[in-house]
Amino acid sequence: MSTTDNFDPAELAKFSDLAHRWWDTESEFRPLHQINPLRLGWIDSLAPLSGKRVLDVGCGGGILADSMARKGADVLGIDLATKALKVAQLHALEACTEGVQYREVSAEALAVEQPGSFDVVTCMEMLEHVPDPSSVVKACAALVKPGGYVFFSTINRNAKAFLFAIVGAEYVLNMLPRGTHEYAKLIRPSELAAYCRAAGLNLQLTRGMEYNPLTRHYWLSADTSVNYLLATQKY
Fold first, then answer.
1. Is the whole-model pTM more than 0.85?
2. What is its pathway (predicted)?
3. Rounded distance, CA 96 to CA 151, Å?
């Protein structure tokens, strides 16, 4: 995979069409706003963000990047969706968020440009949207400093994940636009762990993320059968 071609034009178009709704907490992006405190707290508990140089790969409209900057990190958010990045930049200006910048560049290209430059790298809800997730994992490993942390989150590939994350979330509860996820692109934890090991990342911790549709409550657990997060550290 080259530094420029690991993307799906249809996926970029999908999120670009919704770009103006990134910061609407009642929009299609409501789930991301709801889970962000969980993701942020988990990352900060393992790799305290204050004073760290952080890269957010696949930052979209900047929900996580913005919150990490507010924790005192120096954050660079990158994405290939132009409209989403413009929304992220506008929000940073309107919210007076210091310590966050955004660039339209792929992880692979940035890895060539700035290898070993970041204390923490995050790549959340992004791997299931690219043709070659292992290429992104390899780039994240190249971008982080030795001893630094790389965090991933994605969706498992099994019958339960299909039922909950696709049928339930997209077609029954209408939490996400239909077609947001393709089952064949989902990634089993064992597959992601293998990508990490091949890239020189040591798996530190795995957590699942669960959701109760009645209470609209999210929480972290040991159940990785649907949504899950991985914390890794560079050798």
1. yes
2. Cofactor biosynthesis; ubiquinone biosynthesis
3. 26
